[in-house]
Amino acid sequence: MDMDLKELLSQFKDDLKKISSLEDLEAVRLKYAGKKGVLAKFLEEIKTLSVEEKKEAGKKINEAKQEIQEKIAELQNSLAGAKSASAQDRFYKTLPGKKIAAGHLHIITQAIREIVEIFKPLGFVRVRHPEIDWEWFAFEALNIPATHPARDEWETFFVDSPPDEKYGRLVITPHTSNGQVREMLKNELPIRMLGISRCGRRQEDVSHLQTFFQFEGLAVDKGISITHLKGTLDYFAKNFFGPGREIRLRPHDFRFTEPSFEVDINCSLCLGKGCNFCKSGWVELGGAGMVHPNVLKAGGIDSKIYTGFAFGWGVERTYMMKSGTQIDDIRHLFNNDLRFLEQF
Ligand code: FA5
Question: What residue owns the CA closest to ligand 1's atom 25?
Fold first, then answer.
């Protein structure tokens, strides 16, 4: 047994000399120290020996096994080191890496943030009002009684719920003007509010969505006049749309402002020539006007002391009219097609 073990170890050392890879080493490990390897056979054989001889032979086999395992571990480490070194040789520092795609804010979120920043220096503070609200705030408080035909213009979605005796039915707010009287009822004068919320209407085509955003400005103070309104809208247009663009005010009829206007901008797609989106060369961005005394009254404000102006514009249309965006269908904004969204 003694002799056999010595021979085994010298044979093992010869085998090690021939090894050039981790695969070769594994084959040698299995040959000597594997479950069915040479050492396992030695252990099998000593079963026939006497107890004393078994003890002596077992000790020698274990010593040989330990030596074999240590040598294998040593060689394994040096071969693994060599393998990673050769992988390093194949690493080209100048080869461009794979780019991880980075997302960005949706363009309407970007537009909302820009709008908020532009109005901030004028003292307008962003506020939020309910997007599902009572008819009273969306219409009655704004001087549009239930029977008034103007109410049809808002093409409202009604919520299927029991009506309230004073406030009427719940609606998906068709405009952000519901926030006007809500803001007045906070009883904190003067007011410079910028309410931005989702609105819903039963409409959908190149320039209309069922769900869209509006931003609503409201200023109430002593001595507010129409020149403040015009100046505020001009200031916004200059900052948001860039130079060379024109806005115009058209007389209109909103029941909650007097006088009332619609505000148009020359179309950014055709620069005023007329196209499929604008039809006439002008795009309507929203409404504006001086707050009607009845609305101030509904908000608990004395119209003999205070006056105010208000405006409500569509965020999507406003963004589409920014110079250079070239978006010719409002529905692209919410189709969630990455090929479109990635361009902005
Ligand atoms: C109003 O909603 C008034 N509340 C605006 C207002 C506020 C007037 C304060 C006076 C004082 P109008 O229905 O015209 O007005 O809508 C205003 C703007 O919202 C439109 O010009 C358009 O930019 C946007 N808008 C309206 N409906 C849609 C729609 N279905 N899809 C996308 N944008 C819309």
Answer: 314
Q: Which of 217, 147, 209 is closest to 333 using CA atoms?
A: 209
Give residue 69 CA to ligand 1 midpoint distance, Å: 82
Please answer whether residues 119 and 113 qualify as being in contact, where contact means their C-beta atoms are separated by less than 8 angstroms: no
Q: Same structural domain for residues 132 and 174?
A: yes
Q: How far is the CA of 215 from the centre of ligand 1 (A)?
A: 9
Pairing verdict, β 257-266 and 247-252: antiparallel
Domain count, the chain: 2
Kindly state whether residue 265 falls inside one of the protein's structural domains: yes
**How does pLDDT run across 54-90, given as a tens digit for each residue?**
888 888 888 998 999 899 988 888 887 776 666 666 7
C-beta of 290 in contact with ligand 1 (< 6 A): no
Which of 59, 89, 119 corresponds to the end of one domain? Answer: 89
Kindly state whether residue 96 falls inside one of the protein's structural domains. no
Range of the domain at 135: 107-341
Are the CB atoms for 180 and 310 separated by under 8 Å? yes
Report CA Rg, the chain.
Answer: 40
